[in-house]
Write a structure and sequence with these properties.
20% strand; Aldehyde Dehydrogenase, Chain A, domain 2; 20 strands; disordered N terminus; seven-stranded mixed β-sheet; 2 domains; 14 helices; globular; Aldehyde Dehydrogenase, Chain A, domain 1; six-stranded mixed β-sheet; 36% helix
């Protein structure tokens, strides 16, 4: 194994050590698990235990739900201006503590500090956005056939919401869910992933400092995901579940919520294509494909999963992509000279290696990288695979790592068919200088989001979400508040008397 795939792990410390929380946050208080149980949180760069965190179960989760139910009524009765002011303070505290929050994220998740800083700012942008959207929850007056009646439509908060979030964006996923919920008057119980609970707990501490009333935001860290998940999905007090994660888990949670008919938002798996046509700017396309494929080290649901290149420029594109990948440095994310950190776990590495081995066995060749760390290492070299085809597992399955398979296509129609040959439909990207082609392809591929000559497309201002088995609902933009509101019709009669 090369030295690039090893790391000893730099030392780290926080300017504000109180942001490193290890207890659950329930009803405005930091509490241990009833049993006193804890679970370890590991640094994926070194495989060392960072801290032990409270390992709560169904009973603590039930109390969090009860607290959320009590708190939501007074919160919903407040003016939008009051709710907005507290959220704005939360946003400000996030921005004031970017460096500490970034260090916590890098230590528990592995991404480099530069990416962690970006995520903290990105997370805060959702809090700021929805703080403003809180003031824009409009109703309607509708015409009635009767002259002595008026129909009024108002929108009210759903109630208690539950959130289950993934490890790859430990701060952003809470912000995208909690900010709109709190903005419109809901309360929330959130279960962080056991791999990365510290970022969410730090955010809860800052929400507490911002003056968020007790019970509105509750954080229940656990290794007993099934037990806590079943409480969140079965408890009738919870009126909505929002989940980001795999399609398989999303389907299971959907079934579990059916008995109580909860509102659902599901942001699930992806299999994002990058389509590069022969009239594209190849340097721009290679840089964009690399930025998408290797950001967060390929561990996002919108990362480029299939890079599809027109056959006339196939070899040239691969050379451009190799030039970009050749500038990367792999190591501990706390090292400011490092561009890409480790995978989240050894299992993640082994799953990716299985996909690569299958592709090679069926004829794929390695154009760059291809080395996997051994032993307890979570490091993988950024890899480019050539001569791949749609008969390989890697074409159909989400990679979730720094492996870029490059496919050939001949015609626009073939590219659209290849892009749509998946049950997923989250993000997609295309590169072309032909505006007509851009419109045809963007409208012809079945995805919730399409980047045209751009792969960094997520923003608090834009709707994020997919179609088909990539989920339902939208996060961000003005559409994001709709997920947490119910529509109520009021009929005013006998107005002529």
């Amino acid at each position: 194994m090369s030295q690039a795939l090893k790391s000893s792990g730099p030392n780290w410390s926080l300017s504000d050590p109180d942001l490193l929380k290890t207890q659950a946050y329930i009803n405005g208080e930091w509490v241990d698990a009833d049993s006193g149980a804890t679970f370890p949180v590991y640094n994926p760069a070194t495989n060392e235990v960072i801290v032990e965190v409270a390992n709560v179960g169904a009973a603590e989760t039930r109390r969090a739900i009860e607290a959320a139910e009590v708190a939501r009524h007074e919160w919903a009765a407040r003016s939008a201006h009051e709710r907005s002011a507290i959220l704005r303070k939360w946003n400000d505290l996030m921005l004031d503590n970017v460096e500490d929050l970034a260090i916590i994220m890098t230590v528990e998740q592995g991404k480099v500090l530069a990416e962690s800083r970006v995520e903290i700012v990105y997370s805060a942008s959702f809090i700021e956005w929805f703080a403003e959207e809180a003031k824009r929850i409009y109703g309607e007056v509708l015409p009635q056939p009767q002259t002595d009646r008026r129909g009024v439509v108002i929108r009210q908060p759903v109630g208690v919401c539950a959130a289950i979030t993934p490890w790859n964006f430990p701060s952003a996923m809470l912000a995208r869910k909690a900010a709109p919920a709190l903005a419109v008057g809901c309360s929330m119980v959130a279960k962080p992933p056991h791999e990365t609970p510290l970022s969410m707990l730090a955010m809860a501490e800052l929400a507490h400092r911002a003056g968020l009333p007790a019970g509105l935001l509750n954080i229940v860290p656990t290794e007993a995901s099934r037990e806590v998940g079943e409480e969140l999905t079965s408890n009738p007090t919870v009126r909505k579940l929002t989940f980001t994660g795999s399609t398989g888990v999303g389907k299971l949670l959907t079934k579990q919520c059916a008995d109580t008919l909860k509102r659902l938002s599901m942001e699930l798996g992806g299999n994002a294509p990058v389509i590069v046509f022969d009239d594209a700017d190849l340097k721009l396309a290679a840089q964009g494909a690399a930025a998408s494929k290797y950001r967060k080290y390929g561990q996002t649901c919108i990362c480029a999963n299939r890079i599809m290149v027109q056959d006339t420029i196939y070899d040239e594109f691969i050379e451009e992509l190799k030039n970009v990948v050749g500038t990367y440095k792999i190591g501990d994310g706390l090292d400011e000279t490092v561009t890409h950190g480790p995978l989240i776990s050894r299992k993640a590495l082994e799953d990716i290696k299985d996909l690569v081995d299958d592709a090679i066995e069926h004829g794929a060749t390695v154009a760059a990288g291809g080395e996997f760390g051994e032993g307890y290492s979570h490091y993988v070299e950024p890899t480019i695979l050539c001569n791949v085809n749609d008969g390989m597992r890697i074409f159909k399955e989400e990679i979730f790592g720094p492996i870029a398979p490059i496919y050939k296509f001949s015609t626009e129609e073939e590219a659209i068919a290849m892009a749509n040959d998946t049950e997923f439909g989250l993000a997609s990207y295309l590169y072309t200088s032909d505006q007509g082609r851009a419109w045809r392809v963007a409208e012809g591929i079945d995805y919730g989001m399409v980047g045209i000559n751009e792969t960094i497309i997520a923003s608090a201002y834009m709707p994020f979400g997919g179609v088909k088995e990539s989920g339902q609902g939208r996060e961000g933009s003005r559409h994001g508040v709709d997920e947490y509101l119910e529509t109520k019709y009021l009929c005013f009669g006998n107005l002529g008397k």
